[in-house]
# Entry
Amino acid sequence: MIETIIHVLVIAGLIVSATLVYYFRDLLAAALASGLFSFLISLEFYLLQAPDVAISQAAIGAGLTTAIFIIAIRSTKRYEEDAP
Amino acid sequence: MIDPFYPAVLVLVILICLCFIRLILGPTPGDRVVAVDTVNTLTVASLVILGLIYREVIFIDVAIVYALLSFISTLYIAKYLGGEL
# Structure
């Protein structure tokens, strides 16, 4: 019972953070929400008792992807412009 | 019988969901960075408690890797905000 509530809360957090990636105009905040999404999906893999998938998701999604996004934002523009 | 450590994980996950309010409303990027860092620490704590519930040693190793990588991720963002990167 409690485990089901934990699953529902983690999946609700996944949906909220994925929606935030779409809505943020500041690309740094979008990269932050993307990193949070990968951390939460790693927690969900862990709850489903797949620790090897969780460890690779944490390594690639949280460590590498956020750093590469930050490097890419540094070389280009940070704020997204309005659609023409 | 319900494992007595499950309510602790539930409380930690509720706290993670409360951190989303600061992530949504936060006016400056600094607020959002602190929210994400708090979520990372709470997640590491819940991973350790879940490893205790499942009674597997290998599950604790995931928490160690997780703590290290969340530090690296936060460090990159902080260096970008500080203008050093």
In short: Chain A has a mean pLDDT of 87.
